[in-house]
Write a structure and sequence with these properties.
The chain has eleven helices and two strands, in the order αααβαααβααααα.
Length: 304
């Protein structure tokens, strides 16, 4: 137990120091431009200006409904949640998992060694494998009722914009990282710097939610895009697709392969959300604590 308490303490100190170094550029272990904090701000500013200059839905306010709530979610989910609990928790879990492997005489569970591959090919492998695992995880968030309660936070967006990308319940981070861990741990990478993969997926996530529209041509069958993702957030879907459509995060190809792609028309002015959204919490605290008690719908159903 003492070992894990020390891990928690070191994780807090380490992440707090990391965050301060990111904000102030006080680091020498990587190039100055590989800065997650300021990259998030620059990418967000880029899409904000794009939305303002070339909006798809012209009648939507520049600062749409809940824009500032979503802006806070971006920093909370990208940085503050890790500072508060996730980094320490994940360090404990990883060490506990490695201790468990040691009981069976194992030092790792690497099944595919790609350390000798070119760096670009390693990054591409990480990107594709991770996106595929995330596609299935995202689908689980829609199909498993208790996970859907957490995922409702993301679907509580009623006007779409780039910042909606990072409005999600903190439990989603726990779910995604838990499911991702073993598949990625089974691949023996020769690099530990995945900055470009993280920034690319962040940018595409902003793009998917942004109030913009660009025709991709044939690339729409490979990459997700705002027109497609609008339908993922649609309030009203056909009964046979009631649990959701277009589950892709960065790649759309999985939806076309598994038959969940759905774009009946542009979706420019469709209603967003889900049945019961008017009763869903509107505050940050109400949303991040949602899912830990029975939903109002479930309680109402039990009443005589």
């Amino acid at each position: 137990m003492e070992k894990y308490l020390e891990i928690i303490a070191n994780a807090y100190r380490g992440y707090a120091q990391y965050l301060w170094q990111e904000i102030t550029f006080q680091y020498d272990y990587k190039p100055w431009w590989q800065n997650y904090f300021w990259a998030l701000i620059l990418i967000s500013a880029f899409f904000l200006l794009w939305e303002w200059l070339r909006p798809w839905r012209e009648n939507q306010p520049r600062f749409r409904k809940d824009f500032w709530l979503d802006a806070f979610y971006m920093f909370f989910n990208f940085f503050l949640f890790s500072l508060i609990v996730f980094n320490a928790l994940s360090e404990v879990v990883v060490n506990a998992f490695n201790d468990l492997l040691a009981v069976f005489g194992l030092s790792n569970i690497v099944a595919l060694e790609i350390a000798s591959w070119p760096v670009g090919l390693q990054l591409l492998t990480l990107f594709v494998v991770r996106d595929f695992v995330q596609w299935w995880t995202h689908r689980l968030l829609h199909y498993v009722p208790w996970l859907w309660e957490y995922h409702k936070v993301h679907h509580s967006v009623e006007e779409m914009g780039f910042a909606a990308h990072l409005r999600y319940h903190w439990m989603e981070t726990v779910v995604y990282r838990t499911i991702e861990y073993i598949p990625l741990a089974m691949i023996g990478f020769g690099i530990d710097d995945f900055f470009f993969v993280h920034m690319f997926t962040l940018a595409v996530g902003h793009w998917n939610h942004a109030n913009i529209r660009v025709k991709l041509g044939p690339l729409k069958y490979i990459f997700n895009h705002p027109n497609m993702h609008m339908w993922h957030h649609a309030h009203d879907l056909p009964a046979e697709r009631a649990r959701g459509v277009n589950f892709g995060l960065t790649l759309s190809v999985w939806d076309y392969i598994f038959g969940t792609a759905y774009i009946p028309h542009s979706g420019k002015s469709i209603k967003l959300g889900f049945p019961g959204i008017k009763r869903f919490p509107k505050t940050f605290w109400g949303q991040i604590t949602h899912g830990f008690k029975r939903s109002e719908e479930a309680q109402a159903a039990k009443k005589p």
